[in-house]
Amino acid sequence: MSNIENRLIELGSPLPELAKPVAAYVPAVTSGNLVFTSGQLPFIEGKLPETGKVGASVSPEAAKTYAKQAVLNALAAVKSEIGDLDRITRIVKLVGFVASVPEFSGQPGVINGASEFLGEVFAEVGAHARSAVGVPVLPLDSPVELELIVEFK
Hints:
CATH superfamily: RutC-like
Strand content: 15-25%
Largest sheet: 5 strands, mixed
Structural class: alpha+beta
CATH architecture: 2-Layer Sandwich
Helix content: 25-40%
CATH class: Alpha Beta
Strand order of the largest sheet: 1-2-5-3-4
Shape: globular
Low-confidence stretches: none
Number of strands: 5
Distance between the termini: 18 Å
């Protein structure tokens, strides 16, 4: 097992199985020394833990934990491409989407669930560029969706 996967276990968040796509796409693709993930939902054992909009039926605190789960799923997609998470040399960019009501403006705090977790796992390698975007709806009525761009050796 890789050092990164051991670190995930130490943090109480082992790497999940690769989430199955919900439409016509692949979980990740490699181009050169970069892996681009497809949008990852916060599936836990194939199911969304909650659906709805942040600021209405979903609390910002819950959505922050879902962002962490979605980034774990993104790391599983990266592993499916490169075989070993220890090959990651940089988390380049995280793009986070938050399904939220129009008056909710805390999208950055929600996506911090993923960003802070990447910092805990990867230290300085986990420092990344980021976007946190509010949207009216996401696939399957998920509260969050994330994409990662990762550099590897």
